[in-house]
Specification:
The complex is a heterodimer of chains A (328) and B (487).
Chain A: E1 5-10, H1 16-22, H2 27-34, E2 36-39, H3 48-53, E3 59-65, E4 68-70, H4 71-83, E5 84-90, H5 92-96, H6 108-117, E6 133-136, E7 139-142, E8 146-151, E9 161-163, H7 170-181, H8 250-253, H9 271-280, H10 288-295, H11 301-305
Parallel strand pairs in A: 1-2, 1-3, 3-5, 5-9
Antiparallel strand pairs in A: 4-8, 6-7
Chain B: E1 3-8, E2 18-23, E3 29-35, H1 42-45, H2 54-57, H3 66-81, H4 87-119, H5 130-137, H6 139-160, E4 169-170, E5 173-174, H7 183-209, H8 212-219, E6 228-233, E7 245-249, E8 255-259, H9 264-267, E9 268-271, E10 280-283, E11 300-301, H10 304-310, H11 317-329, H12 341-360, E12 380-387, E13 390-398, E14 404-410, H13 412-431, H14 439-450, H15 456-459, E15 470-474, E16 480-485
Parallel strand pairs in B: 6-11
Antiparallel strand pairs in B: 1-2, 1-15, 2-3, 4-5, 6-7, 7-8, 9-10, 12-13, 13-14, 15-16
Classes of the chains: A alpha/beta (328), B alpha+beta (487).
Chain lengths: 328, 487
């Protein structure tokens, strides 16, 4: 029997998910032994046309990372969806939108304006900006159009499973590949990670007070954090209580707060709302003004609570311009 | 019959790129355009975010070189808050940075560009990849590369929290450091790294330098550009990736200017073309003269080739020996051969290994005093480091509360963008004639950009797209006449 065929593909992402696959180290040789990687553009020269030539459903699984924000990416993931029995949204960007999703608080025109017109180091721009079509002396050059809105993978195609994390932890990648090969998968739609809060696997768990009582919220540069004690108890906005475990509390081990890249557990609809209410509930006051003053110390609520999940949230777009409504 | 050849997307690099080659009636190249088709807009959505989040947010510009963005952002925060980190913090940062350099350079040599050298530029397409490299050099060497990389990544995870998207950089220092108990692992890895650096150079020597065909390509005019070169140097003009001043040498190799990172706007500007999302930095005082080489054109290069040209020495003994041999064999300084970048990269890898050894021997490296809490009111900060792919600048302005009001990022691959565009154009002109095009030739056009290890995720802070390579050949009426695939 031939080996199952597997594809890895990236959309709007940083390449960290690809690095995480390379970080399987010697285990990647086991993967190569067990499956045929038939498409992995960053490392192998197999092409889009090879995928197009495959029979529908002939790929066992397509691991797709990155958010979706151009028609080009949309076409590619639709193609992979047709060819693959299973699609796994790989990493925070495909899962929840990721950090590129923070762009959804702005319009595309704002992003272009800042980079090409208002940049401190563009002084001779003369209003030039990238165009979808440019006539040059030799002919016509084209660029893809970027969508106004950053989308999660499951907002454009059906997704079977999710591997969370920015990037997904190596042990979870190994586990997911193992369960697929052994056909021991949980119900479709599952997130392939433990369904419990990060605090549960945090080495500082014993120092977490039973009842938190927050008089102030601190920013990480304002204190030298005690490396043994619960960061939340030290006043730092650690999102461990509302974030799914599975990374081994890596950031906390680095003596910095969890920022929530693993996303919520299955009991939560909207990660940012959950995180915000969880933090607000810690405030140790019954006086409205005092509560407001304490919460005002949170400098950037959107960037803090929705850092990886704005496109997946109930607030995923503050304003939908007319021309963007037709975008899938 | 005039026609256009489109290579879209190009492969074995980070991010998405596209090459359009226009042929004239004789089948010779009129011009080849190197395009970067995406943009993400980090400069805009940084606004409103707390400055101390920048090392983590901007690391998502690139998951291949997250440590470079993390470090440039962290150094910009030192400058923003006008806080001088304790020596232990600076040394641990530099140590981790050199470990990152080795890991990244090794990835490029063995996984991305290496297949063109180790397996061969005209080898069957299916073999031009890491698996082909393992097939050629043997599994033992493959496991050695994988094992070394694993050790580096483990040390990065240990100190930086995560190797991919580190968390340890803060204004005035780092969030955690190295303990006495950790130190033996660092010492062991440093020793093995020096051996590994020498091993990689020997491999390059045996496979590439002893092959007259490869040397012919490396030194041919097709892959040569005479531009300015930029790189960070220390007070003695020795190479340094973490700290120093930017030194620029001319096409003649002589110093053109040297300036501190805070002065970058006096010396650098960016040109915009409508046909690419990447911007093209140039030396402001010389000016943008189009895609031209020479002393009258402001185009400059960064990354290993440029750094070795811009510095006067390596500063560590084994790397210095190799540096001298490199210039001797390449015919003196500066070296203008684009493909020599891969050799320069390996010399840098050895430098980082030796620097790692020096730093782990420094008693400060386990000094628990690794944080100074900032007390000044922030307003503006600039951080400059050398990313593996070249000079990287982060520049932030904030309000009194440290909330970003303006962010400017000049990223390594951006700095190289104009020279990469010229290299692709020149390679296409040199390699395609009389309409004769095949997969091997097109791969050799791609080698012209691959040498730079470009990262378009970084270069445009962009959304990397798909990677497959297909070449559609159209006649002048845009009818598809032929399709070539690398498959």
């Amino acid at each position: 029997m031939s080996k199952p065929k597997v594809a890895f593909y990236w959309c709007a992402s940083c390449g960290g998910c690809e690095e995480a696959v390379v970080d399987l180290a010697e285990d990647i040789l086991k993967v190569v032994g067990a499956v045929d990687i038939v498409f992995w553009p960053v490392a192998l020269d197999f092409k889009r046309e090879d995928v197009e030539a495959m029979a529908d459903n002939s790929l066992a699984v397509a691991f797709i990372n990155g958010a979706i924000r151009s028609s080009e990416q949309h076409e590619m993931v639709e193609l992979l969806r047709r060819k693959a029995g299973l699609v796994v949204a790989f990493g925070s960007c495909a899962h929840l939108g990721g950090i590129p999703g923070l762009a959804n608080t702005f319009r595309r025109a704002d992003l272009i304006d800042e980079a090409y017109h208002k940049s401190l180091s563009v002084t001779d721009g003369n209003g030039t900006e990238p165009l979808e079509k440019t006539e040059v002396p030799e002919g016509t050059l084209t660029l893809p159009k970027l969508w106004d809105t950053v989308k999660t993978l499951d907002q454009v195609i059906k997704v079977d499973y999710y591997l969370p994390g920015c990037p997904p932890p190596v042990n979870l990648i190994n586990g997911a590949i193992g369960s697929i090969l052994k056909n021991e998968l949980p119900p479709p739609g599952s997130v392939l990670a433990p369904d419990m809060a990060l605090c549960e696997e945090c080495e500082r768990r014993a120092t977490k007070p039973d009842k938190m009582a927050q008089r102030e919220f601190l920013r990480p540069h304002q204190i030298k954090a005690d490396p043994e004690k619960c960061l939340l108890a030290q006043g730092l906005l650690c999102l461990g209580p509302v974030t799914r475990k599975g990374c081994g509390a890596a950031c906390v081990k680095g003596n910095m707060p969890c920022t929530g890249c693993m996303g919520p557990t299955s009991h939560v609809v909207d990660f940012g709302t959950k995180a915000l209410t969880a933090m607000a509930s810690l405030v140790d006051s019954n006086d409205d003004r005092e509560i407001a003053a304490i919460l005002d110390q949170i400098a950037d609520p959107v960037g803090t609570f929705y850092r990886y999940s704005l496109p997946a949230s109930l607030l995923h777009r503050s304003y939908q311009p007319e021309h963007a409504k037709g975008e899938k | 019959m005039a026609r256009k050849i489109t290579i879209d997307p190009i492969t074995r690099l980070e991010g998405h790129g596209k090459i359009d080659i226009f042929l004239n009636d004789q089948g010779n190249v009129d011009r080849a355009y190197f395009q970067v088709p995406e943009s993400r807009g980090f400069e805009r959505f940084a606004i409103g975010r707390p400055a101390e989040d920048m090392p983590q947010i901007t690391s998502r510009i690139c998951g291949v070189c997250p440590t470079a963005h993390h470090m440039a952002a962290t150094r910009a925060l030192d400058d923003l808050y006008k806080v001088d980190p304790p020596p232990a913090a600076k040394k641990v940062r530099e140590l981790m940075y050199n470990i990152f350099f080795m890991e990244d350079h090794a990835l490029h040599f063995f996984f991305l560009a290496g297949p063109d050298f180790v397996v061969g530029p005209q080898a069957p397409k299916a073999e031009r990849n890491i698996l082909g490299v393992l097939g050629k050099v043997g599994n033992e060497i493959g496991l050695k590369v994988i094992g070394m990389r694993k050790q580096w990544r483990e040390l990065m995870n240990l100190v930086m929290g995560k190797a991919i998207h580190p968390v340890f950089g803060l204004p005035g220092g780092i969030s955690r450091s190295i303990t006495k108990e950790d130190l033996p692992r660092f010492i062991k890895t440093a020793d093995e790294s020096v051996e590994f650096g020498q091993f990689a150079l020997k491999l390059f020597n045996d496979i590439v330098l002893k092959n007259p065909d490869y040397m012919h390509h490396i030194t041919s005019d097709t892959y040569t550009h005479k531009t300015y070169y930029m790189g960070l140097v220390d007070k003695n003009n020795r190479i340094n990736f973490y700290d120093g001043d930017l030194r620029v040498v001319g096409p003649d190799g002589k110093e053109y200017v040297k300036f501190g990172g805070r002065q970058y706007l006096d010396h650098m500007d960016e040109h915009v073309e409508p046909w690419s999302y990447i911007k093209f930095p140039y030396l402001k005082n010389i000016g943008w003269k189009g895609f031209e080489d020479g002393a009258d054109s402001g185009i400059f290069a960064v990354a290993p080739l440029a750094r070795l040209n811009a510095a006067e020495s390596m500063g560590t003994p084994l790397a210095q020996e190799n540096y001298e041999q490199y210039f001797k064999i390449c015919g003196g300084k500066p070296v203008h051969f684009t493909l020599a970048t891969s050799w320069a990269r390996l010399i840098e890898m050895l430098y980082s290994a030796e620097r790692m050894k020096e730093l782990v021997a420094d008693p400060d490296i386990i000094n628990p005093d690794f944080r100074t809490i900032p007390t000044n009111t922030p307003s503006e900060g600039i951080g400059v480091v050398e990313a593996p792919r070249g000079t990287l600048i982060h520049h932030y302005r904030t309000d009194d509360n440290g909330i970003i009001t303006k962010a400017n990022l000049i990223v390594a691959t951006q700095n190289n963008a104009a020279r990469i565009a010229m290299s692709v154009d020149k390679a296409a002109r040199g390699l395609i004639s009389g309409g004769k095009v095949d997969d091997g030739i097109l791969n050799m056009v791609e080698m012209a950009f691959r040498a730079y290890d470009p990262c378009h995720g970084c270069g445009t802070h962009a959304l990397p797209g798909e990677m497959p390579l297909v070449v559609d050949i159209y006649d002048r009426d845009h009818n598809l006449v032929r399709q070539l695939r690398q498959d």
